[in-house]
Design a protein that fits this description.
Blueprint lengths: L3 E6 L6 H11 L8 H8 L8 H5 L3 H5 L4 H17 L4 E6 L1 H5 L6 H19 L3 E8 L4 H12 L7 E5 L11 H10 L2 E6 L5 H9 L5 E4 L7 H9 L3 E4 L1 H6 L11 H6 L4 E3 L4 H4 L3 H11 L4 H14 L8
Parallel strand pairs: 1-2, 2-3, 3-4, 4-5, 5-6, 6-7, 7-8
Helix pairs in contact: 5-7, 7-8
Length: 318
């Protein structure tokens, strides 16, 4: 069975040991000095009140990124982690402005470093990698224009564009011109929607931004007509079971709509989101989270086939 992770943030998958080593190199004081003591500061151990609380765990992983070489290392290590998890293909997404935010790096330098590190990792470990640029909506529309420009400077190495961050506070309609420009470039479009806002957020992602895939999309179940549309238009859902429990998008694995998505004929998939932040691996999501969400082995297999069907392999780094 082909193992594909379509929704993995490389800036949410920075190793504890790497955080410690980069902090030492860059003179950054962390709240702990060994992996076990640092873990509670960067890894979720229980559900958070909401998405913005979940995102607070990114503080220290991002704080230690001070140079392009740091970003290059993190990107390469992400591919090595995918290799260790026996992934046949991984789609890594990243926000250059977010990664640059703590120490004043230029977003374009971050993009160049991530592209270089991911490509080096792909060649070294033999894992096909597709890169997806992320606009961090939380920084506002104007900053996202600058972020888009940084990503467009490497348009031939990046396959798609995403919108992530504070979904409730920064709705999709604010970013129509950004995604029009991205579509004109030929990029594919995936949007975080229906995680921290309702089904209307998913509709805006599709109708206004041109989403071909939806990240999370848990609240689609509130709108039967939307469920039908997702199935009929073959718009994929990048489900992230543990992450959705941890952000309180759903109250439990058992309450997650992934099973309903699959039974409704929607091209839903199983993904990790932010493995280091969530303290999980791809195997955890397949072997533990999915059964607790009510997926039979047949439905797990269907989700994995869906991932193979909707993966953007034609955009793999060369």
């Amino acid at each position: 069975m082909t193992r594909i992770d379509l929704h993995r943030h490389l800036d949410g998958n920075i190793r504890l040991q790497t955080i410690l080593e980069l902090a030492d190199k860059n003179g950054i004081v962390l709240p702990a000095r060994d992996p076990d003591s640092l873990r509670p500061h960067v890894t979720i151990s229980s559900p958070q009140p909401g998405l913005t609380d979940f995102l607070e765990k990114f503080r220290w992983p991002i704080a230690v990124l001070a140079t392009p070489d740091d970003c290059r290392r993190v990107a390469r290590e992400n591919v090595e982690d995918a290799f260790r998890e026996r992934l046949d293909h991984v789609e890594l997404r990243f926000s250059p402005v977010f990664m640059a935010s703590a120490n004043g790096m230029g977003p374009a330098a971050v993009v160049e470093a991530v592209v270089d590190g991911a490509r080096a990792g792909s060649r070294e470990f033999g894992v096909p990698v597709t890169l997806i640029g992320v606009l961090s909506r939380t920084f506002g529309a104007e900053t996202c224009f600058r972020e888009l420009d940084a990503l467009l400077g490497f348009r031939d190495r990046i396959a798609a564009l995403d919108l992530a961050g504070d979904e409730a506070g920064f709705p999709a309609r604010l970013f129509e011109p950004h995604f029009r420009k991205a579509r004109n470039t030929g990029w594919r479009i995936t949007i975080h929607a229906g995680e921290a806002a309702g089904p209307e957020s998913i509709r805006e992602a599709i109708d206004l931004l041109g989403a071909e895939r939806i990240g999370h999309g848990t609240r689609a179940v509130e709108d039967p007509a939307l469920m039908d549309e997702l199935a009929e238009k073959e718009i994929g859902i990048e489900s992230c079971l543990t992450s959705n429990v941890q952000t309180s998008a759903v109250p439990s694995y058992a309450a997650h709509p992934l099973r309903r998505f699959l039974e409704h004929g929607i091209l839903a998939t199983i993904n990790t989101d932010d493995p280091a932040i969530s303290g999980i691996t791809f195997d955890h999501e397949i072997d533990i989270a999915a059964p607790e969400a009510g997926l039979t082995p047949e439905l797990v297999a269907l989700a994995m086939k869906n991932a193979e069907r909707i993966a953007w392999r034609d955009g793999c780094l060369k």
